[in-house]
Structures
1.
Amino acid sequence: MEIGKPCLFLEINDKNFIFLVAQYDENFNYKVIESTEVKSEGILDGKIIDIELSSKILKTSIVSIEKKIGFTFKSTILISNQNNFKCINISGYKKLAGSQIFNDDISYILNKIKKIVLDDNPKKLLIHLFNSNFVLDNSILSKLPIGLYGEFYNQHLTFFLLPEHELKNMKLTLKNCNINIERFIFKVFAQGIKKLDTKELSLLINIQEKRSDISIFDNSSLVFSEPFNFGSDLIISDVSKISSLTSKVIKEIFKDEYFKNNEVTKNNGYLDSKYFEESRFRQISKDHLKEVVKARIDEIVEIIYKKNINLSYFKNNKKNIHIFLEDPNICINFSDDIKNSIAGPKDNVTVDSIKTQDERFLPAFSSAELVSRGWEKEAIPIVETKKSIISSLFSIFFSK
């Protein structure tokens, strides 16, 4: 990021390439000077599967933006919703025996943790690293306790790693567009810091059409994220099997908001004949269809959340849960059912979906703010760096 020069943000997902161009002033405030989106191709589960096809679309779009704003880009901030990452939580410690904590003590802990993580994951690259907790004599601190005296110091870190070949594919694709990757940001991180109060225990659940994920933020850190290879299409598929109507027709039924606010008794509680233009008319109870949908919602919630053993530590705590549904019609019709299925007595649950273009661009807006302001608990945000990973890490730690 350079003051006064346009900075390109690119989100890659299965449906769209989203472009945002931001320009920063001397106070690190940004203004959007261009934003656009195009249909993506050559992408599956957020990964590049056809470099030639993706490169062609990206290059055409980037050249068009460059001509429009009169600037040639050399690099981009890449926002990705890949689900092929690895999340590792690990702690290091130092026995102090009443002595002070110095920079060298922190360096020792970090070197030890770094070696463990990288030795165990030789073909993965570090994308995000969060300082989850600083604990001195059982007291959780808000920042590094350098200079303080104590008996025992523990530092908890969360690593997010990506397979090396996945990043190489992205680099090669953008190299074909004469663009380098300056920084890599996971989409769930960008979403979470914009949507949630990350200082409190908060869960972000994304339910897309074919994929889902759950991420946990606590004490201003992203401490856990897990992907699932199913989404809201399971609901469409089940209703289609029960009714013998096509998925296309089921989506049209949901568009009519039949199930919103339990309005299933309209038209005597049966589906309208207009949905049977391509098939023989049958009396199909909307109550029955709603029961099928609710059963599938309960099953999805159980797998992602209720029976997820990785979340055992968090379940009994008071938390905020934000559920994001990619399909706005499912959100309109069944948001109350989803909320009731997941909410515990101590939980604050909200359900929403994308309704405007600004909401589709939210991860890009969030990333633009993240680049200028940084994030208090993130230690390594850089993909391309001339420093070694560990020296970059230290310079960020000790500047706080």
2.
Amino acid sequence: MNQRLTEESKKLSELCNMVRRLTKQRNFSDCERVIAAAMSEYPHAPQPHNLMGVLFKIKDDPATAMKHFRAACSLDPSYTPVRHNLHNFASLYTVGAFVFDETDLGNF
């Protein structure tokens, strides 16, 4: 069971890196497709919903972004990247950048 969790963590980390790269390239259709597939593969993981929230925020759809951030938070309230995104984007004055995963938290 531990090996399965390690493999899942590795795949979700790779997903975050892929989404980061695709959003920089502004390849939103592929990005959304990859995230949706991850939601199906990892239905209880907060990472895909957090990433979808980031994608919709970039696409200037804050209402849909917040729905995904809240879904991610519901799946794992201790997942720090989504807590940061919720706090940041729910405020009147957005400060800072998007948090794709834990590696981005060192920048704040």
3.
Amino acid sequence: MRKTVSLLGSTGIIQDGMDEELPENAWTNGRNVRFRNGFAERFGGHDSVFGTPSVTPYWLQPYSKSDGTKFWIYAGLLAVYVNDGTTGTDITGPTLTATSANKFTGGVLAGNAIMNTQADVPQFWNGDTATNFAALTGWDANHRCKSIRPYRNYLVAMNITKTGVNSPHMVKVSDASNPGSVPTTWTPANTNDAEERDLAETQGVGVDSLSLGDVQICYKADSYYGLQFVGGDLVFRTYLISDKYGMLSQNCGAQYPGGHIVLGIGDVYTHSGGPPTPILEGRMREWLFSSIDTDNRDKCFIVTNPRKDEAWICYPDIGQTVCTSALVWNWRGDTFSVRDLPNVLHGNTGQVALTGLDTWDSDTDPWSSDATLWDTSDFSQAEMRLLFASSDTLIFIMDQAWDYNGVLTTVCYLERQGLSWGDPWALKTLKSIFLRIDAPTETVFSITFGSQQQATGSIAWQPPITYTQGTSLKADGFSTGRFNAIRVSCSEAVPWRFKSYDVEIEMRGMY
């Protein structure tokens, strides 16, 4: 009997379901393979940019000047630099005392980069490489905050500590800024818009905030609120949206076209200013939270990759102290995949002022196997690109070329277990698989068959079979059980896209 399985990228990886009940085109495991437009395809590689940073970068912030000049700011624990794509410049201002336990927040307000370390006074930079970061105007030198973010022409700070006394529910809003300037005061008065208030209806501490349309969403550990400019004597209003879902740590939320995606305590959810919609249940929730290192859960963060319609939920694997994996959600197809990360501390998305990275002179791949096109580059300054700061003292641009910063043998694989082919009681022998894969000629794949007698039993895997693109017609092997399993892997640094496959199965009855 021949069976066709198509649309291999329409369901993605599902770890929490019962394998035997999943659609045939779902995957039960995988690594470094994403799902887009109905296909399963290899994740792009990554490459280092801006040379070797002068400090280990803990925070990245894109910055564009009105004349079109593009910068990336990167901050270490004790110093701050800005890079224009060619040259790095030290713009460290007031003394920094951050530690690896501090998470940076900030953004850009009225042409000024804003940075907060938790340990130091919030700072700003005006975009002039001849000047340094400076203490935020009007901010009390004895005050600290856990998070600071732009909202309209204001700044919003959360979880305030005044002269050593912490007010975990407090939100401070600055006075309005003038064009090109930062706010001049944070002290509430009848003559300005500055305000401070407690979000005290819930017990969780303040964590972070993000803009959503004309509202600033203020996240606590167990809830989230709306803060909205209304003008008049009231100036701002705050209102509780959810008292069941909050945010795990700073930077654990991101904007995407549908609103916000947020990593909370024990769940990941989306919302557009209203009630939360969990997105992991029945698919990846149990798997994700059993994969995160508990002692370093505060190192998690979320960043988007707009050019691929993805949100990356970055986390440290068990035993790791920095983020080594990402659960990747494609919001257009509502699918999940998993990608290895190069020991990352923070990520951000923006335009990058670099020339094409894949040039004729720099391309060392053999002519017979090079997968890139003549006189083209996978880099465009017009696109928003995802960059990561690594504890390896490097900054990486993602989806660049196909190797992982020079490593050519990264294993990318997909695995499906629990295939009953419509009859969970009968024995079947999986004999052959016919692959429909777009890949360069001579690309080598490894195909492994397996089987189970019981849906919850262990898999008996057979020796791997070599499948060579452009040469092999099919992969032949034998594996007998009530449930079949298939694993497809490739370690070559080339692009490939998996469309569908046929299998040859021999039905053998009940015993």
